[in-house]
Amino acid sequence: MAAPLVFITGASSGIGQALARRYLRAGWRVALLARRADMVKTWLDAENISADSYEIYGADVSDAAQIAAAASACLERQGLPDVVLANAGISVGIAPGDAQDLAVLQRTLATNVIGLAATFQPFIAPMVARGSGRLVGVASVAGVRGLPGHGAYCASKAAVISYCESVRSELRGSGVSVLTLCPGFVATPLTARNRYPMPFLLSAEAFARRAERAIAGRASYCVIPWRMAIVARLLPLLPDAVFDRLMAGRPRKRREGE
Prior knowledge:
The chain is an alpha/beta fold. The protein has a single domain (5-247), classed as 3-Layer(aba) Sandwich (Rossmann fold). It is built from 8 helices and 9 strands. The chain has helices spanning 14-25, 37-46, 64-77, 101-130, 151-170, 204-216, 226-234, 240-247; strands spanning 5-9, 29-34, 54-58, 83-86, 133-138, 176-183, 186-187, 202-203, 221-224.
């Protein structure tokens, strides 16, 4: 029998790359999608990964047509995945009073939200027909409450959390399960330029190890690491006035060009 297959977006670096490594070491076949497909090939070659175990698909997840074409190619070349992992995302600070940042907000939502939905969509019907499959959406603890300077990213990840919950409810009883993964702070290119403290920071490899276990389990929602899960539970309980005081003076996320 063929080894199980996982489809991962955002596989050129960070969390996506670390997860791909974990699955390859576990003997899975991988379908790796990235806008920078050449970077995916570079790290695979550097680690002497057998070409028989992977396929690379170049696509920008903010373009639904590109995702659809990549998914179709995956189904034709490798078959129907056992796990679809929508990980690709961007994070840029915005100033809500600056008109030019509306374009940044639009691009963030297109990548982080529409990109996730477009990644799931081509695989849902065939997974339901088969009666099995696992859809995994990478959200963030940042989706729990809005942080100053993070309006685009927080809004996109809040939407991811709600969207995954909706899909999970809709697919109940079909054999297809949905997991919402909410990382805390993970050391990746996205966080490398942050200018504020990042408590409980994990390496991408440490996150991938814990995420792999969560994906293999039956959880529908998982915050990693567990200490950040406590923070994620407490934040919504804080009165607005207390939350606003805690956020006062907090360094903002860098905007485009900063």
